[in-house]
Structures are given as structure tokens and as C-alpha cells.
Amino acid sequence: MTSEDIENTEFTVTSVLALIEQFTAKLASATDLETLYGCCVSLAKETFQLDHSALFLLDDQGKRLVAKATDGLSTEAPESDILPESEGLPDLALRTGRIETVENFFIESRFEVTPIISGHEVCSAIAVPMVVSSAVCGVLVGYTLKKRRFSTEEKQVYQLLANQAAAAITRSSKTASLHSIEKKGGEKRGRLEEEKSKSSELTDEFESIFSAITSGVMLLKDGRDLVRCNEKMAEIFGYDSAEELCNMKFSELHLSDEDYREFGRKNYGTLVAGKVVHTDYTLMKKDGTPVLCRLSGRAVDQSSPPDLKKGFVWLIDDITMQRAMESEVLQARKLESIGIMAGGIGHDFNNILSAILGNLELARRMLEPEHQVQELLSSAVEASNRAKDLTGKLLLFTRREGRSIGNIYLQEIFIEYKFK
Prior knowledge:
Elements: H1 13-28, H2 33-47, E1 52-58, E2 65-71, H3 88-96, E3 100-102, H4 115-119, E4 124-132, E5 135-144, H5 152-212, E6 216-221, E7 225-229, H6 231-237, H7 242-245, E8 248-249, H8 257-272, E9 277-284, E10 290-299, E11 312-318, H9 320-366, H10 374-397, H11 410-417
Antiparallel strand pairs: 1-2, 1-5, 3-4, 4-5, 6-7, 6-11, 7-8, 9-10, 10-11
Helix pairs in contact: 1-2, 1-5, 2-5, 9-10
């Protein structure tokens, strides 16, 4: 050994046991994987009087070594140092599965020396496979700047410490994985609870709308079976409750089976196309009386074409009273039109009567009071006046003239019409 060589570390059984105990205790004190990686390299460096130390672990595919921690070699992020296949001392130890040493990198011919080694002027090194459960999971490497030949004892102790480090890393990795799984499980449970809460809120909102809507709502499935409806639906068709309508056949609400089939033939194509059906149709109440309804329906599935197995939803309104009111309004408009026309005729007829009465009065004045025609003219005047009164009543019907309030003498009416 030259003066520049480094002396080997001497070990006894007692010192080895104590060293393993201390090494294990320090590794156990690490709180996370990154701290554990750092402990491995720093303890190896301190124990074996190394200038540099590095920890390499296999990647997730188990093919390449990834530098997880270094002490003195590089200031770069360890995870960025990925060794190419068949390159460097760590890879040699991984491939052979045994301890590999280099006494002098400057004359090394078994592998290509990596730039990081030559850049730090490293002379000697030891690479020990990290074994756990008979499988290699990584390599623990120590480097010296001066030439050094590692003894058999040093190799054996280095192997023990490397295996201890492998076991500690494996346990910590499993614990971290369990924590990660538990965390993800907790997050997933939280999301599920949140989704459940949102689903519950949506259900409550739907139930509120379903109950409060002023139209009848029904859901048809499985060959147009009525599987659900609201209370308004029961009210329209005269049933005591919505539950009484559920599980009925939709055909039971039709006046006849032929009407039911015709309804299906007419509207099925529109529903299959994913469109909305709007129709006025007469259905049947519980007591058998017809009820005119306005129906709006579509498939529950919104895709195109819709999945008809999900059923159809229908909105139903009773428009019987609406139609009756529309008929009354139409009749009133007809009467109004008749009144307008009668008013026009009444005014024209009044003008004609004015001419007739005027000429009758002139004729009466032109004749002697005792003339035999006077009686005929008087009857004509009375008839014209009655026609004038009738025209006044017609105009009163049309609201074109105000009412004339006065006294009526029943005796005159009896004499005029000769009531007996």
C-alpha cells in the first residue's frame, strides 16, 4: 500500500453488530423517503470513510437505475440522473448481482466511465447490490479520490448495510404507498360523499318540482307502463292518489284499444326521432268520463337516437274548461258581430221609419178630420211607432243608445193588442 492509499476500516463482530444497530436506528428515524435516501448515502460515507456516496434504485419498469441521492457527487436533482443501460459501475453490479469494486478508474476497461466520475476525479469505488427478499432493488455506491482496495470484511459489512437500507426503503415505500392509497381513498370517499350530497340535493330539488308543478307528469317504461306520476296527474283523472295510478297500463287511460293503438302509430315516429310530441287528445277518467288533455312528451334519453328503454316522460294538462271558455268567447264574439250588424240595420230602419212617419203625418193634415182614410192613416202611424219602438230595443241590445226610463200604462197595452 502506498502513502497515497487509504487504509481499510477494521471491523469486529461486536462493532459490526453495533454498527448495524445504529445504522438501522438512524434509518428508522427518517420521516419520509427523501430523508431516508439521504441517510443511506451519508451513513455509508461516514462509516467507510468515503469521499462520495450515491444511492441508485431501479425504475418502475425494473430496467434502469435512477440516482435517488448523492453525497458530494452532484448538486443536480438526483432523480434527473438516469443511467443508460450497460454503463457505469452501478449497472455492472446490477447485472452481475454481486459486489463490484474499482481500484483505479483511470485504467478501468469493463465499462465506460461516466462523465460525472471523471469530472470529480474519482479514483476508486465500491458498488454493492441492495437485496431484499432475494431480489435486487438498487445499488449503493461509495467513491474515494485516492486509490483504495476494499477488504473482504469491508465488502461484507457494506453488503449488510446495503441490505438493511434496501429493507428500510422497501418498508418505507410500502408505508408511503399505503398512506397514498389511504389518502386517495379518503379523497375518493370525500368526493363520493360530496357527489352523494349533490345527488341528494338534486333529488330533493327534482321532488319539489315534481310535486309542485301544475301539470300532470307521468313516466312510461317497459311497453308503456305507467311507473311514476305526480299528484296533479291523479287529480286530472279522478284518482285518489298518484300511487293508485302507478303500475297501470297507459292503454287504461284511453277511451278504447283502437284509440290507444292509433295514438301510438301517430306519435311513435316523432318520439323515436328524439323530438317532442305536442297534441290535444281525449283520454278517460277513472269514472269513464272523457277528459280533453293537452299532451307534451319525449324520450327520457337525450342522445340521438334516444335509448327507448329509459322510457318516455309526458306532461298533461286538462283543457276541458279551457275549450269550453274558448267556445263561450267565440259565441260572445258572434253575438257581438250580430249586434253590430243589427245596430247598423236599426239605424237605417229608423231613417226609413222617419220618412214613413213624416209622410203619414203630412197625409193626415192634408185630409179632413172626418175623412174615411184618417182611420187607416192612424193605424199606419201606430204600426210605424211600434216599429220605431222595436228598433229602439234593437239599438238598446247593441248598447248603441241609452235606456229610456218611463211609466207604462198597462190599460193602453191591453187596448192596443185587444187582450181579452
